[in-house]
Amino acid sequence: QMRQVKTSVVCPHFSMLSHDSNIALMQLNISLEYSAAVRPVCLPNSTETSSSSLCARSGWGSWKQVAALENEICEINCYFSYPGGITARMLCAVFVSVGGWDC
């Protein structure tokens, strides 16, 4: 299904340098039709994040299963991608199927 974005709101704390708060909310011009391939995202409450949890990473039409890791591990492995450091608002993950980092 293809839709146009009616409005979008970028997090006011987003930083281009560090990628901190890299999230946006988009309202589509027409609602999606739910199916086996299109369904709502279930968001955890703020107390459910823990290391070694399996998570779903989605964005711009792609979906991948990732395993959450401790942010300190990303600090070591992804330092050059995030010169501002890995912040408490970031989630460190590794792709389950291919083993690549998703800092």
UniProtKB/TrEMBL annotation:
The keyword Transferase appears for this protein: no
Top-level division of the source organism's lineage: Eukaryota
Pfam families found in the cross-reference section: Trypsin
Alphabetized Gene3D superfamilies for the sequence: Trypsin-like serine proteases
Keyword Disulfide bond: yes
Domain Peptidase S1 as annotated: residue spans: 3-95
A biological process from GO: proteolysis
UniProt-listed SUPFAM superfamilies: Trypsin-like serine proteases
Keywords: Disulfide bond
Record-level Gene Ontology MF annotations: serine-type endopeptidase activity
Full protein name: OVCH1 protein
Native organism: Calyptomena viridis
